[in-house]
Write a structure and sequence with these properties.
The complex is a heterodimer.
Chain A lengths: L10 E8 L7 H4 L19 H4 L27 E5 L12 H9 L3 E4 L4 H8 L4 E4 L2 H11 L6 E5 L4 E4 L4 E3 L4 H9 L3 H6 L2 H14 L7
Parallel strand pairs in A: 1-2, 2-3, 3-4
Antiparallel strand pairs in A: 1-5, 5-6, 6-7
Chain B lengths: L1 E2 L5 E4 L2 E4 L5 H9 L10 E4 L19 H16 L3 E3 L9 H8 L7 E4 L13 E4 L2 H10 L1 E4 L3 E8 L8 H12 L7 E6 L1 H5 L2 H9 L8 E4 L3 H7 L8 H11 L12 E6 L6 E3 L7 E3 L13 H14 L14 E4 L7 H11 L10 E4 L4 H9 L2 H8 L2 E2 L20 E4 L14 E4 L2 H10 L10
Classes of the chains: A alpha/beta, B alpha/beta.
Bound molecules: iron/sulfur cluster.
The site of iron/sulfur cluster has 13 residues of chain B, from loops.
Amino acid sequence: MRNTAFPVFTHHVGVVVPLDRANVDTDQIIPKQFLKSIKRTGFGENLFDSWRYLDEGSIGKTDRVINPAFILNDPRYKDASILLARRNFGCGSSREHAVWAILQFGFRCVLAPSYADIFYNNSFNNGLLPVELEESIIDRLFIEASQSSPTTVSVDLPQQTIRSSAGIEATFDIDSTRKQRLLSGMDNIALTLEHKSLIEDFEVEHKQQMPWLFSD
Amino acid sequence: MGTRSDGLDLLYIDRHLLHEVTSPQAFEGLKIAHRQPWRRSSNLATVDHAIPTTDRSNGVSGILDPIAKEQVITLDQNCREFQIEYFDLLDERQGIVHVVGPEQGATLPGMTIVCGDSHTSTHGAFGALAHGIGTSEVEHVLATQCLVQQKSKNFKVEVTGSLGPGIYAKDLILALIRLIGTAGATGHTIEYTGSAIRKLSIEGRMTVCNMSIEGGARAGLIGVDDKLVEYLEKRPFAPKGAMWQRAVDYWFTLNSDSNAVYDQEQVLNVSEISPQVSWGTNPEMVVDIDATIPAPSDFEDANSSEIAERALKYMGLAPGMAVKDIQLDKVFIGSCTNSRIEDLREASKIVKGRKVASRLKGAYVVPGSGLVKRQAEREGLDEVFKNAGFEWREPGCSMCLAMNDDRLFPGERCASTSNRNFEGRQGHQGRTHLVSPATAAASAICGTLADVREFM
Ligand code: SF4
């Protein structure tokens, strides 16, 4: 059995790439043609595919035409591991492939003022930390990250703080159980199955009350 | 149901719906960990997203795209291996997962329902708590019958007034998203109430709940009434005989108290609304059919005008241009928002005796399920559409997300009854205008976005 479902997250220091668009949806993060894969890996290549490349992508296609105007292709950010984004990041489709693509590209952390619910939730099941920061802090980080020399941010999950190389400091809120999950990397299913008898007892009672829900 | 040792709440899941795109990695996870599904009979699977909508007589072997084919075969195998009830490509009950569940009576009031798809919110029209989930959660539900859940806040939407002629449930929900924005209900479950909701058919209510996610809500709910109970009676998965009566009695106890307190409230009067059309690249960018395209300067803050400017550029539209002058390349009637029998009936009324404009490169009707298709054929709707120049296809998601060959090519513009107008959603560089089935039908006849009221 897998003990940890993903690499644990405690601290991370990395270069920040500023993606200056609001409402980035999961169709943009990983376009539909890549969802035909039955694997859990190999999505990093096609993260933001229709923005990163000028030609239309498909699974396994190499020889791509790079879009030099897209921020991820800017040489300043080639080592970036923190994605700075605008409000309502990850809206739209529930595809967890979006989180896989972000992680497999090399990001460990997203900084944004707000996230769509399903994306936010999916992040914690894979070891990606979505940090929620006030809009004013995000604005300042955008300015800093857009300078000619890239900025790094240090994220401290236990302390719930971020600090940028130019000195922007902020704290962030995170639900304590979600935080714990990233820190421990525990297998979520194993955690639930510790309560096997609780589920079984509930099921017996539920079946008595609403037998029509059980065809077996 | 209970709280886990780490303090998170577990929600017991009554119904789990599966499809080919978000399940393979979950089944693989089960296999690696040597786990079995907790309660097989709670699961129901079908194929919809990646399959072709052209001739199916050869079944899976007729799928030309090798990667899509592998995905469908994987679902076939997983359902067989884990003994999960499955409507495969050749089964007449196959269709879009959110059309199939309700049609079968597999969606019942009071149930907790999940599916690895954000439009699971559709099932809330049945007084069920229904959420879209990610693939890790699909695996979790398969293995434990539970979902780890954070309680969401409540958002009451009261819809008053009456929909005028040519205005439908789709216009209602587009008008609402236009009002609250795409993140307006983030963190909330929407409960739709009010006389206009009561007057909607069950199909119309599904259309409304379906697009709750486009307003940011993970779930949308409508209380139980006689209309709903009548819809459910005698459906294959619905309870029968004495059990039916017992269930019905219970269902009527589920409705919210009249003095319930909500975290947010919104009232929408629909008596005065016009047919709604999206002009931009997210579902809050919506205008009336008889309006003009907005200018970036119409938006208050700098951020929103920038977003509008980018959307206009992507959509190839100029501010001030009349919506009804926008010329189309394709029209799509389908998707889990609008592919039920009622949708096809409304569209066919407009189409009857008319022809699709010659400038269109394609006009498609894709029924939501095999059973919808059969019903429509019984009523002769297929002939109405075909005579007008529409293609009459096999059921599936089709051009809603363009995972198969039904798609827009770069620069093409489509009036679509689906739910998302994101960049590239219907094909790389494709341009989508979200509309009701009747508006789509009228637009197909005109070759431009059209006001369906002029056809009545
Ligand atoms: S019809 Fe569209 S929105 Fe509905 S399930 Fe299929 S792809 Fe998703």
